[in-house]
Amino acid sequence: MARPLRIEYPFAVYHITSRGNEKKDIFLDEKDKFIFLEILSNVKEKYNWICHSYCLMNNHYHLVIETPDGNLSIGMRQLNGVYTQKFNKKHHRTGHLFQGRYKAILVQKQSHLLEVCRYVVLNPVRAKIIENLDDYKWSSYRATIGLDKQPEFLYTDWILNQFDSDKKRARRFYKDFVLAGIKNENLYENVKGQILLGEEDFIKNYPYWALRELVMNAIMHRTYESNAPIYIYEFSDRIEIINPGGLYGEVNESNFPNASDYRNVVLAESMKVLGYVNKFNYGIKRATDELIKNGN
Fold first, then answer.
1. Among 100, 95, 80, 74, which residue's Cα sits nearest to residue 4?
2. At residue 27, what are phi and psi to the nearest 5 degrees?
3. Who has greater pLDDT, 73 or 229?
4. How many domains does the chain contain in total?
5. Domain residues for 95?
6. pTM of the model
């Protein structure tokens, strides 16, 4: 389930991925997928989202969402929360359905949105579920190229307008663009942790409080059972955090007494620059306070 401290602002664009707990399936039949898309449609309408692309796999899903009102977290809480309730009731089960917190990658629209949307709809081919992308009906691809009626929650105009003002030609060019990417290197193959996708100016102009959240997430969701450091990298098109232990790192009081033993200079100095801490141990205390305050 989503936690507070998300990077949100008006018209932010995200590539969202949410996976089943313990890598288990979150869609057991076609009815489950219809239910999920119906909930997505309701969330889109309620929170004024723009859905550029989507793909439902058996044990996870991908969404490319733009938020004119800067309200990703509240919408995601409803999307995953309501679907979990309906799934559990339908299949006579209880407990968590999704694997912790969903992943949301902030995307620069003009430079990277097309590539991200292509990556999303190519998932069934990369997973070798199908050979012909036209055969997969649980993504936005068929509607975007005109094979299926466009669902109300899907917005294809921005994508198609990048290719041609004539919709018929645009659909043909879009299809060629997607198919040309099948043999391309995986967009996220060497990426770990939450990142930003965009050009250099997008990274430089990225608000300091957003990088602060990136650092906070790394601390909150790391493991304190090893001496592995947390690394922060700044690339020309993204910021990346390598976070050993990742989402499964436990955060509790027993982890903190020896936290200074795991000090990472890059992380500590970054937190100082961001005005978040004076000393590393105080930063851990601050992170603990944030967790308690937000009900984690």
1. 74
2. -125, 115
3. 73
4. 2
5. 12-197
6. 0.69
